[in-house]
Amino acid sequence: MTLATSFSNKAKQIRSFILWEAKTNAPIMLTYLILLAVALIIPIILQITFCMSTNGATDIYLAISQYLIFAISTIFTLVFTVKQFSYLHNKRKLDMYCSMPASRATQLISKQISCFLFTVVPAVVSLLIVLLCYGIFNFNIESNGILQLFPQLIIGAIACITAYGLVAICCGTTANTILMFLAISICYPLAINFIDSTIKTFFYGSTSTVLSSGIARILLCPLDAFNGNHIIYWLIFSVACIAVSVLLIKKRKNEKAQSAFIFTYPCHVVKILVSFIGGMFLGYILGTLGAFDFPFIGFVAGFLIGSLSVYVIAHIILYKGIHKLGKSMITYAVMFAVVIGAVSLFNFDVFGYNRAVPEKSEIKSAGIIDLSSAHNITTKNCKEHVKKSATDFDDENTVKRIYDVQKTMASEYDPYSNEQYATFWEILVFNIISDDVEYNYNDMYIDAMSVAFKLDNGETFTRIYQPKRYYYLDFNFDDVFSSAKYAQKYSTYSDDYISKIGSLTVSEIYSDDIRESVVTNKSDISKIVKAINQDIISGTIPYDGTMNAFFYNEDDYNYDDYDEDNENYDEDYDDILFGIYCDPDYSANSDSISFDYNGMYYDIDKTNKSTVNALKEVKILNDDLSLNQDSKYFQHYSE
Amino acid sequence: MIEIKNLTKTFDKLTAIDNLSLDIYDGSVLGLVGSNGSGKSTLLRTLAGVYTPDSGEIKISGVNILENSFIKGECFFIPDFPFFYNNSTINNSAFLYRRIYPNWSEDEFKRLCQIFPIDPKAKIINMSKGMQRQASLILALSTCPKYLFLDEIFDGLDPVMRFALKKILIENVSKRDMSVIIASHNLRELEDLCDCVCLLHLGKLVVQRDIDSLRTEYRKVQIAFSQPPLENDLFKNINVVNVWRNGNIFNLTIKGTEEDFMPKLNALNPAYISAMPLTLEEIFISEMGESGYDIGNIIQ
Fold first, then answer.
1. Do B67 and A9 touch (CB under 8 A)?
2. Which residues of A touch B67 (CB under 8 A)?
3. Fewer CB within 10 Å: N-end or C-end of chain B?
């Protein structure tokens, strides 16, 4: 009974605080609502005025609404959060709140809930209004996009509010709280990128993605929660933040939170993170430049200068002076020793990773992939594909040639060269831009080569090499890359790639009107592309290994260029009947057909028998090789 | 009753309250006086549960106030600079207080709103310092606290409002047995209001006495001689706290009762002698002087 009463009292107190906060924050909430209203109304007016009949444009206006609502909500989440938790750092506010008959935990939770409600409720209401308006005006909307904003906003707000609340408890001033929150949110993923890139730089050819992908990269970056990924993690993170906050707030000494409380711990984290980044940055610059004629020494000097200066500056900012600097230098010294120790071990290849070559006699099979032209290999599935490639070739000659590549690369490793330090930047940039996004090596124009060996003991030996490391070496695998076996696995007509094709458009090329059949049925697409594959294998569609078949990016298409590339083009020109365009990004719900860099284009003539037969089989072509106008896929536009 | 036992509160290297012990009985009005930085405000904040004691304990009605919502509901603290949000009004603040404080009285709130000439719908932040104090008092007294902690409450109040405040406080003390602790440098006002005074210096309790006994303890004596006295140590047998001489006239502050020191002074054959009680301010200066905090030490 006592517990129940106590709980109901607390609930009443929380409710009272939230209502009161709502009243006191009314002006800022009004601003928020006005901005949201503008974000909503303008696109709707534009839609009604100009585009009621144009279905395709609807998505654009809807997208504008979504992004504006999202951006405004994110900014106001941070504004509300900073404002709400400032009571922990303002002496006058503390006098008021802490003397009130409500426990600190109750007040903290009411602040967190009010923050959440102030930011999320108006945004959610706005999104619902958008949906309603589009429903009223009978606009054809694809609702998934807008609906996915809900969890993004909610989870982002929860993670940021709870994380900021925890940092606010640890800090004595609002300025320090903001600095720490931003420093951790920005520097943590950056530091992980630096560590990951360092490992990839020195564990040359490693396919490890432990740090560069998944949750490790965003562990301490609550701002990332607004992306709507890793929802379960962010929920656990938020619950943990609330639990720790409630524990700490009870022990917090308001009057000396800045000097005597837990403040020192997040302070150490922030100083270590920022000084690590500063040190690595300058270290790699001097290492790349080969300072002191010995890149490793250049790195050490750069790391020392960069990290020490950033560490001291960060300390001065957080502690408002050099108070306690001497004592905190122990932490810096530990960090310095760990980093330099690790980099020296890596640089001098103490683990023998860079010079490792499998025993030739133990190799069962091997594989090599030109990742820059492998259409089905992405940053996410790369490791898996490279591993699988170990069984691609088992003929002695190919295996020996691949073995020689690894042997040469291993022998080329030089700990006194600045090559690896220069490679670091390439890897770092790649890591940052591919953060949580699945990029295709081919689309990104990233030149890289992988080798893999299947050993007798069942183990697989893999390495991926960046071009900087092998460009000057004379490896010629054109015959391997242009082989049908290779093409079947890594080209656009590999099963992986075919499964990603959303639409296939068969167009009459030289017609005044646009006459085409847009195939969206997966089974029919697969049938046609496999037929194209057959024609490439039989040689009727030329395949030169580097262009990855007789097709090219739609956006790059240029007849003049084409003439230069293929002398026979003019002769074949008149024979071409159809262009087949495969679009992996085609959405079945989209109102328009988009052409982008990922699409592949094939020219088909009478000699491409398999393709022509497949087109007939799916009833796109008539027997006279004209487009079947009765086909369910047929479309006709007059110019 | 408020019991403070061996309370110590430090800020880094500064000891704001040093092993302080004090009992405050229900229905009393205690004046906290002391030098700047003597720990008055710190003591009030610790009493209100804003600060956590480093050592020692505070019990209000036999219970530790820290994190105790029930007992906090019986207390109200008005700091030297009360906080109000930019758009706070008395009505708006009352919205929260009436839900949070268990003893909130709507009648008292209306009555106080009539007594203090403030618009309850006006933004408090735009009001003068004195009016902000009045707004705080309206809210504080409407919660019907059993313990009221006031820090420099007279600051900014005009004489009429000071009088009104004293009247209201005394009324509440007599009606509801409310205890009030007031920290102030305005000793004149405390003199009218307090029945007990607590003098702090450098975080230590110098003296705690009820105000009547404190007044009888000190006497201001003017003594004149027809001939300049030849003795150097004229008042050696008397507990003289302070001496100021102008020719043959001596102004003395003497600690003790008239029965004790008058016979000794008369024995010096003065031409004129008169004794009168000290004001609280004069007692404060005398006591602080004894603690080494006198004007002579400050301005050498």
1. no
2. 103-104, 250
3. C
